[in-house]
Design goal:
Strand content: 15-25%
Radius of gyration: 16 Å
Structural class: alpha+beta
CATH superfamily: Transposase IS200-like
Strand order of the largest sheet: 4-1-3-2-5
Mean pLDDT: 90
Low-confidence stretches: none
Largest sheet: 5 strands, antiparallel
CATH class: Alpha Beta
Order of helices and strands: EHEEHEHHEH
Number of strands: 5
Number of helices: 5
Helix content: 25-40%
CATH architecture: 2-Layer Sandwich
Distance between the termini: 59 Å
């Protein structure tokens, strides 16, 4: 019997290490709307920031949509591990789901891509901030509560200029 190998969808891990900037989208299985409760979002935000810090990364942006998360992690040192930060975040929050909301879990993997220049970073940040607007949740991205950063304070002037 021939075993079918799962197609690799990521670059080699060293591409994601050091000063790499990685955009990630992680979805809840069956698109269950879990990120509508501020207590859950605060707890998950704290976990994300902790893992980013522990792995020498900045969270340039994180935005919790009702059923998925967008985040851009940027390595701050040669030893930074953005994907390790994301994997630990999903592991810890997955455990939280198993203890507090057994019917909810993350999808097995997540979508990621490398951002190769600063112009690309700001384009991605703007795109992520506009996600709740495109989905009709808010009229203006600044009104959406479930976003944050360890770098930016998201003054409208900072992003729109």
């Amino acid at each position: 019997m021939t075993q079918i190998k799962e197609k690799k969808h990521r670059l080699p891990s060293d591409f994601y290490a050091g000063f790499a900037t990685v955009a990630v989208t992680a979805c809840i299985e069956d698109r269950f709307p879990v990120f509508v409760n501020s207590n859950v979002v605060i707890q998950f935000s704290d976990t994300l920031i902790s893992e980013a810090t522990d792995n020498n990364c900045d969270a340039l942006i994180y935005l919790f949509m009702p059923d998925h998360l967008h985040v851009i992690l940027k390595g701050k040192t040669e030893n930074a591990q953005p994907l390790k930060a994301m994997n630990k975040f999903k592991q810890k929050t997955g455990y939280w789901f198993s203890q507090n909301a057994k019917q909810i879990q993350w999808q097995k993997s997540y979508y990621d891509h490398l951002i190769r220049n600063e112009e690309g970073v700001m384009t991605q940040v703007r795109y992520i901030l506009d996600n709740p607007v495109r989905k009709g949740i808010v009229a203006d991205w600044s009104d959406y509560p479930f976003k944050g950063s360890t770098v930016f304070n998201f003054n409208k002037e900072l992003i729109d200029n």
